[in-house]
Specification:
This protein is mostly helical and 101 residues long. It has three helices and no strands.
Amino acid sequence: MTAPLLETKQRSFIAPQMAGRLSVAWLVAGGLFLLLWLAGDEVAKWAFAYPKEWFIPAAKWISLFMKWLVNEASFGIFTFTDLTRFIAAIIDLPYRFVLSL
């Protein structure tokens, strides 16, 4: 058996003397973020105009990966398409069972 809870006051993980300073720091950081978000294009144009070489072609990479996965990926005995159809059939079994009642 465990001992009953005597205190219900929630304890802070931050020392009380640091809590006020930490809140002010978060308010300042949030204010700076909001200021740069709204007026950053006029203040720091260099921060918003990236060189074309710096862009990551993630959309192209994801598209190529998905085409490979659907059309060519094979796990020996079965393909990825077969695997997803099997999972869909397993998920569909309870529904078909209930419909047959």
